[in-house]
Amino acid sequence: MAILEAGGNAVDAAVAVAFALAVTHPSAGNLGGGGFILARPPGGPTVAVDFRESSPRALTRSDFDAMIAGGGGGPVSVGVPGTVAGLLATHERFGRLPRPRVLEPAIRLARSGHRVSNRTALTLSWSWPTLKRDPAARTEFGAPSGPLPARARWVRRNLANTLERIAADGARGFYEGAVSAAIAARLSGHLGAADLAQYRARFREPLRFGYRGLVVETMPPPSAGGVALAVLLLELQRQRVHALDGGSALAIHLFLEASRRAQAERRLRVVDPDRLAPEVLARRIAEWTDPDHPIPGMPLVDRSRATPSPTVHPLYAASLRETEHTTHFSVVDAEGMVASCTVTLSDGFGAKIVVPGTGVVLNNAVASFASVGENLPEPGRRTTSSMAPTLVLADNRPVLVLGSPGGDTIPSTIAQILRRMVDGGMTIDEAIDAPRVHHGFVPDAFRFEAARPIPQAVLQELCRMGHTVSQRRLPIGDANNISLAEGAAWGYADPREGGLALAAASPPTAQGPSTPNP
């Protein structure tokens, strides 16, 4: 809010929030991970910024297989971090305030200290058995009695120094010099200074498709979540689910069947787009966004019976589960610029490694590569992700700014919020509060939330149709989203994890068009 009230735009504010989350929300907010941003200036066009991690040049398949067998952590699991490059590239292109001003709040939080939130204390306690094995992580996150408790005063001087280098020197302050050398030394033999120096964020064209007269723009590959969202929503549109009672067994059945197919596509057929021939990528995008035809080769949806996942794709048995530790936020400014940003360390606290002297928590994104399908580990390749920051446009103007954490549940969460507003006429708070369901293709069972259960009669009918119910009843997603209409903006923070929805105290002073930042 301070950035907006100082005359910054939505991208300035989003970048400031992302750097601050690296200080206050270290299980997912980060400098040592990656993510995606959809940024749209007033009038457009929307730009997709890809700063997903890439695999180091030294990665071998034997090292990858051993790392996965060992639980998906440690030095081999670390991908080349993209967050700093992505945030700074986005800011340089769209931001208005100088870079040091945008990083100042994060630096202050780290150097002067802040209180450990209840949520951070909880995530630290979950990961402490592994974190405490790493000396720098034990120092960064520990107290004499164990992990830092809630409300403890937390000063992060090493991270403040790193942030100050980035404020002064830009990307060079992270990808070259002392920070780069410290990362390379900690990961000696696995990820080197050359990997860091060669990393670049990518500006990409959003994945764009129509849904019931609106235009949906979402993250393209290497986001597989955006692909799944397109496949899911377009199948629902073909099935005319909008004409059904949204809480009926048939509507939920069709949603689960569409989700099952979308998740199979996400897991097994999305790959780093820079590794595909342009004509192959164009053909796949056309298939994913075709409003009239389902994905070739997939069995058609049976409106009366569940389709067993092993018959949807032959690689069902070899597919892997993924973790759900990301964070998402949405920003809109008084002039109509919007930013939808999702960042991640992959697992909670990533590889459970802190780089000595820097405060940087490292990702375990290499573990996000698959053992089957097309998203296979190769040196220099970007792994796919379920993250899917999304915008919905009407008459070329944003009306929804969407996104969520939640691993493979991200497309399901976004689709359900979108549908409840577009098809069901709900307000954004009603749509976010409503119960969610999810089918991830693997395992062949669907989830619902214990705190928001499905009515027993509907559940029985779904079972009669052949669906298996998962015993996992955790909350699904954490949507901190914005609705825009008639010159007003409504932000709502999902109560599932306790975020915040805030508005600037007054419109910022007009500053004119954005200019390049130092």
Number of helical elements: 18
Give average pLDDT, whole number: 95
Which geometry do the CA atoms define?
globular
Number of strands: 19
β content, as a range? Answer: 15-25%
Helical/strand content category: alpha+beta
Helix content range of the residues, please?
25-40%
Number of domains: 2
Intertermini distance: 22 Å
Spatial strand order of the main sheet: 8-9-14-15-18-19
Low-pLDDT ranges:
510-518
The biggest sheet amounts to: 6 strands, antiparallel
Overall radius of gyration? 22 Å
Concise overview:
The protein is 36% helix and 15% strand. It has 518 residues and is an alpha+beta fold.
Overview of this protein structure:
This protein is α+β, with helices and mostly antiparallel strands and 518 residues long. The chain has 2 domains: 2-203 and 327-368, no CATH class; 206-321 and 388-493, Gamma-glutamyltranspeptidase, large (L) subunit, C-terminal domain (Serum Albumin, Chain A, Domain 1), CATH 1.10.246. 36% of the residues lie in helices and 15% in strands. It has 18 helices and 19 strands. The protein has a 6-stranded antiparallel beta sheet with strand order 8-9-14-15-18-19. A 5-stranded antiparallel beta sheet has the order 7-2-1-11-10, with helices on one face. Helix 2 runs antiparallel to helix 4, helix 5 (99-112) runs antiparallel to helix 8 and helix 12 (224-238) runs antiparallel to helix 13 (249-268). It is globular and about 60 Å long.
